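Suppose you are handed only these lines of text.
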Amino acid sequence: MELETEYAIQTSSLSKEFSGFKAVDNLNLSVKKGEIYGLLGPNGAGKTTLIKMLCSVITPSAGKAHILGKSIPDGNISSQIGYMPQETGVYLGLTVEQNLKFYGRIFGIENDEIMKREDKLLKFVDLVNWKHEMAENLSGGMKHRLSLACTLLHQPQLLFLDEPTVGVDPELRVSFWDYFQDILKQDTTILITTHYMDEARHCDRIGFMQHGHLIAEDSPRVLMEKSGKDSLEDAFLEFSNRDKSPAEKSQGGVSQ
Ligand SMILES: Nc1ncnc2c1ncn2[C@@H]1O[C@H](COP(=O)(O)OP(=O)(O)OP(=O)(O)O)[C@@H](O)[C@H]1O
Ligand SMILES: [Mg+2]
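From them, the structure of the protein bound to adenosine-5'-triphosphate can be written out as follows.
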């Protein structure tokens, strides 16, 4: 059932278990429409698992989630969302241009329109001169840039970007963030993961994730204030420490 809501994403006690191990553990998350929300946390925190559930790639073990007012998993939501997977979703046996056309056709976009969007996106990700190159011949960062362009082609309302800037050079990373700010003005919502704390400060809100749940969330400024730290890195460590059980804290003390 579809509900009218101010939220693009809402989860309630969402969980995912793999052979008894809780990769996402009773997670409650609300992201408002038009917001850019950054999910930050160490390797294995459950960020990708959460995104895969929200994109209906994998099924939750328990709990509920609504995406743009629709209860998931929902096969009909794909035209409204864009998912850039962490592992890069491009077809290596196709050229750069063929990849974009392929994604355009999946979403039923007319050829003329695909070509217009393709030109703009290739400029944005700086791959104009690589248009006819096979994707397998691109560097890792370039494949990532192509994957981002493919994700944006059908102009989705809600974007899930799993480490979109990894391996991308600093200058282009800055232009990516400018672009994200631009599309937010057109009422797009973005859920993004990153390990680059310097770029996380561009998010409206950040959720620090650890062991499958959120240990803190707020604007970057408030997170630093609440933790008494002056960098997001230190703020994360502070919240991580507060989240530890007394036994874990004393273990930490012994090992130092
Ligand atoms: N298909 C799977 N089968 C078994 N375990 C899995 C599977 N997918 C993920 N996991 C486990 O779930 C946990 C969370 O993984 P996930 O990929 O969501 O972490 P992440 O926060 O995205 O990490 P990273 O920052 O390295 O991308 C990890 O311990 C991982 O090994
Ligand atoms: Mg991940």
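What can we learn from it? Residues 18, 23, 41, 43-49, 86 surround adenosine-5'-triphosphate (ligand 1) (CB under 6 Å). The mean pLDDT is 91.
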